[in-house]
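Suppose a colleague, Dr. K., hands you the sequence of a protein chain of 277 amino acids and asks what its three-dimensional shape might be. Before reaching for any lab equipment, you can write down a predicted structure in token form. Begin with the sequence itself:
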Amino acid sequence: MKTDAIAFGPRLIGTPTGKLRSAVLMRPSASIERAKTMPGEPGAIYQRTLEQHEILRKTLSYFGVETIVLEPGGEDPYEVAVADAAVAFEDGAVLMRPTAMARRGEADRMEAAFARIDVPLAGHIAAPGLLDGGDVLLAGNTAFVGVGPRGNALGRSGFGAVAKAHGYRVVEVALAPGVPSLRAVASAVAKDTIVLSCDQVDPAGFAGFTIIVLERGENLGAGVLCLGERHVIADVRYRSALSKLRKAGIVVEGIDLYDFEKIGLTPSMLVLGLTRD
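The predicted structure, expressed as tokens, is then:
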């Protein structure tokens, strides 16, 4: 007799752009003042990052997102980019293996955190594979993987195998030199719509999606955090990007995250979405 498999455990990501219900954040550490800045930007100021991070948390809470804020466990200034640590699918999270040597311990710390909050694991990137979660973008039934200075072919292929097992087709997209991560310059704002920074990522890889291309000069303006279909959190300083998104029918919640943007970190990189409808 044939029986259907029955799935147990929490349901995480129903759809990649569904309503965000819970998320993990990593509090900034004082080491953030040592982070390399984007060209032409001054250094990040630790106290301001704490204030801006708390505004981000409160904004998420206001829109009904349960937030879990973890304390940093290392001295790397980019540990606050918690989206690099894992990628969540419907039935579990895949632990990444960050490219920077100083960040390798984050996977173990995130695994321990997941055990405490009852998040099942769907896999992990094994050595010598390398891949950062910020270089993975889920949209509809597609997993886009950025090809740039971070990660390696083994890490991308390993993640691709897991993504395919979860029903996603995998598309690799080339990043321009100097791009900090895929999710800094590309975001899914609806199941069929992607916002891209001009000249920062190859748009050909996003065939089949409606594409909103932002103006030159606001490269990190595309790194928005999707709260739900056509509803995002964005950095308020990218005024042209915010205007273009709103004209396209996207509801935009603008907040100040300037001290993170100074070092190439966008709203999409500061939040690890755990559950979505």
